[in-house]
Task: inverse folding
């Protein structure tokens, strides 16, 4: 055999050998894809979860492989809208480039399943139930709410008396949607005047609602629920104060339904057994903090509004941040500038998504020293090209609670600064 023929033969053998090894290691569901879905998707995509189908088993995943490829490549799923090159969060959930690429390659290879370990086939381990401390109370609607099958969006208010007898501290707050298909998102507020019970069941469009909305609330934004933002847990030793006999006011957004259905949602509150060491407070920047007033968004225009907080009189340690806008919102960015001129990135949502408004929880306390100012800028698209524009043709939109009105809010949970907070993991 001459040398060249030998080289060719050797090369052919190597290729065959390599292929057989790679053949075994071909990207497959059991080894490569399942761990990605378990980590990033199954939390919502399981039976009884908030997503419309499960992704915790081969049959469901196999049937939807192409769709999974599409929504992960476009970053529509998992629904994480903040820019993580700007700031990181404890609750962040997004796929790495490598994970997205693995899913693509798996689909290109016709989504092989790989070798099934029988033990694992039995399904996922059940959700771990953590031992609970403190008192848990679940407060449901006074009566089930009937959504008439009129195929229209609904924004309804509910009044849920807490029946809490003594002042206390909240360790965690959770919203449990009753009808997961219908409840789109909700906002929990607190009233301590005991004069808003008449709001129960009223629609945002009901004119009698106005007499309630003039009353200042003890907490206009205790918690905002969207799918996936199920619960806020305050770090150990920190809690949110709740006064005896507080009433929860819940604003629920229902998606249209062609048939009559009911909803009975509830709030689950964990109260601490003992007074907490540090009280979590809420700093809410609103339309009043906008520096380029008035907050009017003219039709056929893209507008940007800038807001700044008053100068902080004390040092504070931030726990979380939540920007809030409605349907015309396009992007939101917030940062703080310290008296030394340091710029601290807080949150950046480059493509605003009305459906996925999240409480972004910092990984460590973000300390804002005394003298700091918090800034935010938000853009709105009030053109006919904005597919979410509630008015066609576009018309002038201003401030309001309703989803067809607009808002610019920044909700920050914080505690008063203590030395060493910079180092504390949340
Ligand atoms: C925070 C909860 C949550 C997480 C995490 C999540 N999903 Fe979803 N997913 C949903 C909900 C709710 C819907 C239905 C509403 C929608 O399409 O936005 C959905 C819809 C989908 C759809 C259908 C989209 C369509 O256009 O009909 C696919 C496919 C999907 N998810 C795949 C995934 C994959 C893959 C992951 C993980 C990489 C993931 N999801 C993570 C909540 C979630």
Result:
């Amino acid at each position: 055999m001459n040398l060249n023929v030998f080289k060719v033969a050797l090369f052919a053998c190597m290729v065959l050998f390599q292929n057989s090894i790679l053949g075994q290691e071909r990207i497959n569901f059991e080894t490569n894809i399942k761990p990605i879905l378990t980590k990033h998707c199954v939390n919502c995509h399981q039976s009884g979860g908030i997503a419309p189908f499960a992704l915790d088993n081969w049959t469901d995943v196999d049937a939807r492989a192409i769709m999974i490829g599409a929504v992960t490549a476009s970053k529509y799923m998992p629904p994480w809208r903040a820019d993580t090159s700007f700031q990181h969060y404890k609750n962040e959930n997004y796929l790495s480039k490598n994970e997205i690429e693995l899913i693509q390659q798996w689909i290109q290879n016709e989504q092989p399943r790989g070798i099934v370990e029988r033990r694992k086939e039995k399904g996922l381990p059940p959700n771990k139930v953590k031992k609970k401390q403190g008192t848990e109370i679940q407060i449901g609607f006074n009566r089930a709410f009937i959504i008439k099958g009129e195929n229209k969006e609904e924004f309804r208010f509910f009044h849920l008396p807490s029946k809490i007898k003594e002042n206390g501290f909240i360790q965690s707050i959770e919203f449990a949607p009753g009808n997961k298909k219908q409840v789109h998102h909700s906002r929990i507020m607190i009233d301590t005047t005991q004069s808003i019970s008449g709001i129960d069941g009223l629609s945002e469009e009901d004119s009698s609602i106005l007499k309630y909305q003039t009353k200042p609330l003890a907490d206009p934004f205790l918690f905002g629920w969207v799918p996936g933002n199920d619960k806020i847990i305050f770090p150990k030793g920190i809690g949110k104060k709740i006064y005896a006999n507080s009433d929860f006011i819940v604003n629920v957004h229902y998606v249209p339904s062609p048939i009559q259905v009911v909803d009975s949602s509830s709030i689950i509150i964990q109260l601490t057994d003992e007074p907490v060491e540090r009280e979590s407070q809420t700093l809410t920047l609103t339309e009043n903090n906008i520096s380029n007033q008035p907050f009017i968004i003219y039709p056929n225009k893209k507008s940007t509004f800038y807001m700044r907080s008053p100068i902080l009189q004390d040092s504070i340690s931030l726990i979380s941040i939540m920007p809030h806008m409605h349907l015309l919102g396009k992007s939101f960015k917030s940062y703080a500038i310290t008296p030394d001129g340091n710029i601290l990135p807080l949150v950046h949502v480059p493509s605003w998504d009305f459906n996925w408004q999240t409480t972004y929880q910092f990984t460590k306390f973000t300390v804002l020293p005394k003298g700091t100012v918090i800034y935010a800028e938000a853009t709105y698209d009030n053109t006919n090209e904005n597919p979410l524009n509630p008015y066609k043709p576009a018309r002038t939109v201003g401030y309001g609670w309703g989803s067809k009105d607009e808002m610019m809010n920044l909700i920050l949970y914080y505690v008063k600064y203590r030395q060493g907070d910079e180092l504390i993991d949340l």
